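Pipeline run #58 for the internal structure catalog. This entry was flagged by the ingest filter as a single-chain record with no existing model, so it goes straight to prediction. Upstream metadata was stripped on purpose; only the residue string is passed forward. Reviewer on rotation: M.T. Logging verbosity set to normal.
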Amino acid sequence: MNPPIGNGDHHPWGSVNNEDDQMSLRSRVLDVLNGPAVARMRFRFPIRGSHVTIAPQTFHHVARAIRLGQVTVRPPTDLAAGVAAQYNDVARTRADGTAVAANTLEVVSATGRLDEAYIVHESLHAAYDLLRTGLDANAEEASAYVCTALYCRMTGLPRPRWANGPIYANAAEVARTLLSQYQKGDPGIPWVGEHEWKMLRAGVGLDPVYAGGPGGILTGWLLGQQYTHDG
């Protein structure tokens, strides 16, 4: 099961609060998922006895689900302060008793490159859910941070604006290795660097946001606990 607040990224932004803005938000999310940075994103990483591959089609699957109404994009009303985006793989109940449906992507803002990077991060969680991908929550979070770092790097966002703290610093190193492979012109899908990937997984697993839940080192990496992936 997911932690109560879901898979959130912690950064403060403004809010979207009317129907027209909500439609604009949905369109902007689709623009990001079908955009040029996501079109370059590809890598694979090991999991127990196998591997997972991330490619543009991963995100295009989410975009298609949004267009078909299988995933709802909406602004949040009750996320914790500093949470910029959250994908809800299961339904949750707000403090006021109202419900947020399963398969809802809550996005505070989509007005800048950092906002867009968080959308990519949460959309990877959505893809794993929709595709019923079997992987532990620690690897899931680590791979989502790789996508965040790749997006920031490929859109030219200055590193001091996003690579703060050990998780993002480690994700930046994974992204650096992958980008060096992209620059060689090899059309294949590169593997993450082994050392960088392990450092990132450790950084995720030790972070207080994840340590006590499925994304922790013991719970996720060693025991293989997963988030809900039921489509």
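catalog note: The first strand starts at residue 7 and ends at 10.
catalog note: Confidence is low (pLDDT under 50) at residues 1-17.
status: ready for reviewer M.T.
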